[in-house]
Design goal:
The chain is built from 22 helices and eight strands. Strands 2-3-1-4 form a four-stranded antiparallel β-sheet. A four-stranded antiparallel β-sheet has the order 6-7-5-8, sandwiched between helices. It has four domains: 205 residues, Multidrug efflux transporter AcrB transmembrane fold (Up-down Bundle); 103 residues, Alpha-Beta Plaits; 90 residues, Alpha-Beta Plaits, CATH 3.30.70; 172 residues, no CATH class. With 705 residues, the protein is α+β, with helices and mostly antiparallel strands. Helix 7 runs antiparallel to helix 20, helix 8 crosses helix 11 and helix 19 packs antiparallel against helix 20. The chain is 61% helix and 7% strand.
């Protein structure tokens, strides 16, 4: 944003035009935010990679099964130890009532007695239709109303439908509870930071407005441009926009407050603040947008969809904070900062503040500071060995106990552990007999359950039951064995799918995405930094600090997950999500600090510029870090292990980044390397002071004097 545009945004009368137009645009787009849930696609195909074998099975089996059909297992266990004829009659009556439940197939399988005679199960087919998994909680609740425990029977609800209902309920708070929690956390942090109630409200007003506009924009993109949105990406969107948006506001307002000390007219102060701060904020936002769009290279549909969703959200946050907020600030005047109103001509506290003093301490031995800091960060990164990013079982996916998970354990005591989640196989009809025989011999499959359920159009469809829990590592191994067995049959073109195969393929695709996208994001960040700082040395050094910071955050997370939270591991997509958010968002602080250091270096030399830049930006970078950490920490309010882990990792990583890496490590490197950090630009040739020549007076005030 150049000076002319900045002048129009903050012009004495044009500010009113900007205000009205901004409110019309934001309000118009935000009016669609309430419809976002109607375009969410939580069907399994919206998550799976399109080229996965399990995805191909889903597509090939549509002639035999309804892709929207989800099995629900209703298990009855005897309180006396044995199922009686009276119990069977009661269960048969329940089956008839369940068959009449809306969206449940009238043909309910069962009663199916267990071999030990202590349990009986019914299997009902639920048609979730276009509503996807969001419909399951109500359907399962209706089933429960028609299958209640009695004096002699205890009823348990298991299978994919019950699990999906628990997952849908867990994600159900992702819109309301999550955003409310994030807003409260941000409000408290803003009050502590600025001690100004009205300023905190203004920040939140703009932040919530940005969230509304982002949700409306994503709805329009999903409705008219084919963008895939699911519950996970929709929830992360609100946290991402609120946290990043308030960060951008903090960075702008910090420079505005500084300029209010230099200019009596607030319009002129905002014009200079926008002229100086907006390029860095816009560069930060564009870096985040490009970084998120790198996710479109992912194999996983859910990961690929998050990229455009997040990018659209960041674009809305930039619009609100760079257009609407400046106009609002100049309209309301200086009183918005009360009781600590910045006065024209008053000295800046940043010149004698905490980070100015920290800079003076670092300047005494910068090389020792960055070497020791780096060694500590590398030491913390060793905790990555305990991260265990190999996927989570159904039980380990929740932070709280879930009825469906407990029911699965009861089912496993009386029936094959994989009951209710069969593997699915499609093959050429001509080879059906060979495929069926091969499946029956696979270790981990109950041979007596292998059955051909359909044959049409030259394709045969089989189902079989696993002998181990469908979400266990042993089941994944069985899928490998089954695929090996049927792939060997020449001309069969056999494919193995089902819920277990789906989970296995998701983990494999997520691992491939980690290896593909992380290097791409690093390359994008490097190019942006080179263009912005007009150098090669500084961007390369900053990129190394980014990697070290991320590794340390992952190491801390691994230690805490394993030893404090007692999580069994993380989802395979966790490293990628954490990396993209930490690097793409963390680069904001790099950009804001280094653009200010470069600005000051042009006048005072690199080493003095580094200290002036730290003193001026250290406080706001720290505050912005706390805000972003707080918003992501709000993810822990949802009972989903993946989101809780992501929130913790991003929160820890951002705080580590803002307090240690940007403010201490990068400053120490600037001081030690000096003007050479700008190589090969002309700034690298500008005369610089030696480290020992500061004389204990590195503030801007002393330089100007």
């Amino acid at each position: 944003m150049n000076r002319q545009i900045a002048g129009w945004v903050t012009h004495h009368w044009a500010k009113w035009v900007v205000l009205v137009l901004s409110l019309l645009v934001i309000g118009g787009v935000a009016s669609f935010s309430s419809k976002l849930g109607s375009v969410q696609d939580n069907d399994i195909s919206s998550w799976l990679p399109g080229d996965a074998e399990s995805t191909k099975v889903i597509n090939a089996s549509k002639a035999f099964t309804n892709p929207d059909a989800v099995p629900a297992v209703i298990l009855y266990t005897s309180k006396s130890g044995a199922i009686t004829p009276a119990d069977l009659a009661s269960i048969q009556a329940d089956a008839a009532k369940i068959g009449k439940v809306k969206k449940v197939d009238s043909k309910v399988l069962g009663p199916i007695p267990s071999k030990d005679g202590q349990a009986v199960e019914l299997i009902a087919t639920v048609n979730i239709g276009s509503d996807g998994w969001n419909a399951l909680p109500d359907i399962v609740d209706d089933i429960k109303k028609n299958a209640k425990s009695t004096d002699t029977l205890t009823v348990h609800f298991a299978g994919p439908a019950a699990l999906g209902a628990d997952q849908a309920k867990a994600f159900g708070g992702i819109d309301g509870v999550l955003l409310f929690s994030a807003v409260i956390i941000v409000f408290i942090i803003l009050l502590i930071t600025y001690r100004s109630l009205q300023l905190a409200f203004l920040f939140l007003l703009c932040g919530v407005g940005a969230v509304g506009a982002a949700e409306g924009a994503v709805y329009l993109l999903a409705k008219h441009a084919g963008l895939t949105v699911n519950g996970q990406s929709a929830g992360i969107l609100s946290v991402l926009v609120l946290g990043a948006g308030v960060d951008y506001a903090l960075l702008l307002v910090a420079r505005y407050r500084e300029e209010l000390h230099n200019y009596e007219d607030r319009h002129e102060a905002m014009q200079h603040a926008l002229h100086r701060a907006a390029p860095a904020v816009l560069a930060s936002g564009i870096t985040v947008i490009i970084g998120l769009l790198c996710l479109t290279f992912a194999h996983m549909n859910s990961t690929r969809g998050l990229g455009p969703v997040g990018a659209a959200g960041i674009a809305c946050a930039l619009f609100v904070m760079m257009i609407l907020l400046p106009a609002l600030l100049v309209i309301v005047g200086r009183w918005i900062f009360w009781p600590f109103v910045p006065r024209f001509g008053e000295p800046l506290k940043s010149e004698t503040g905490l980070w100015s003093r920290v800079g003076q301490r670092i300047a005494k031995a910068p090389r020792m500071v960055w070497v020791v800091t780096t060694l500590i960060l590398v030491g913390l990164s060793l905790g990555i060995t305990q991260l265990n990013a190999h996927g989570l079982s159904n039980e380990d996916s929740f932070t709280t106990s879930q009825p469906s998970v407990a029911a699965e354990k009861v089912v496993a005591k009386h029936f094959p552990a994989g009951d209710g989640s069969p593997i699915s196989v499609v093959a050429k009809s001509a080879k059906a007999t060979e495929v069926e025989a091969a499946l029956a011999q696979v270790k981990g499959i109950d041979g007596s359950t292998v059955h051909k359920l359909g044959d049409a159009g030259g394709t045969a469809y089989f189902e079989a039951t696993l002998t181990t829990a469908a979400d266990s590592k042993a089941a994944f191994t069985t899928i490998d064995r089954a695929r090996t067995a049927v792939h060997k049959i020449g001309g069969a073109d056999a494919l193995v799918g089902g819920n277990t195969a789906i989970n296995k393929d998701v983990q494999s695709a997520s691992g491939a995405d980690n290896r593909l996208i992380i290097p791409i994001v690093l390359l994008v960040v490097l190019v942006v930094l080179m263009l912005l700082l007009r150098a090669i040395a500084a961007p390369m050094i900053l990129l190394v600090t980014v990697v070290v910071s991320f590794a340390a955050a992952m190491g801390i997370s691994g230690l805490v997950f394993h030893n404090v939270f007692n999580f069994s591991g993380t989802d395979t997509s966790f490293p990628l999500f954490a990396f993209v958010f930490l690097v793409a968002l963390g680069i904001d602080y790099n950009i804001f600090l280094m653009t200010r250091v470069r600005e000051e270096s042009l006048e005072h030399g690199t080493r003095r510029g580094a200290l002036i830049g730290l003193g001026a930006t250290g406080g706001v970078i720290t505050s912005a870090g706390f805000v972003l950490a707080g918003t992501f920490a709000a993810l822990a309010t949802l009972p989903i292990v993946f989101l809780a882990e992501l929130g913790f990792a991003v929160a820890v990583g951002v705080l580590l980044d803002t307090i240690i890496v940007r403010s201490v490590l990068v400053t120490a490197l600037n001081l030690d390397i000096g003007r050479h950090i700008w190589w090969p630009s002309k700034l690298a040739q500008k005369p610089d002071v030696e480290v020992g020549e500061f004389g204990g007076e590195p503030s801007k005030a002393s330089v100007d004097a």
